[in-house]
Amino acid sequence: MPALNSLVLARCEIGDEGVDSLVGNLGKDDFKALETLYLGHNKVTDAGVAKILAALDAGGLPKLVNVSFLLEGNPASAVAVEAVKAALVKRGAPVG
Predict the structure, then answer these.
(1) Contact assessment for residue 44 and residue 16, using Cβ atoms and an 8 Å cutoff
(2) Is the pTM of this model over 0.85?
């Protein structure tokens, strides 16, 4: 989905396996326009957050900037969530 710019998967019980399916092994055109990803109030743990970080480190989700509530309401640790926010800010995403 190269043209998709916003994806909201709130309160749908997505967990680590779902996150891996979503962002694991992204191709060069997968989600290349995605600016907003919201996974709030689901079952994402630090393992799922690690998948998101791996995708970011590999250059995936190049336009993702809206990070304010990306992972709120999940069992992932605050440290893991902050690591995602920090990775995005490092790439130029606004703090918020």
Answers:
(1) yes
(2) yes
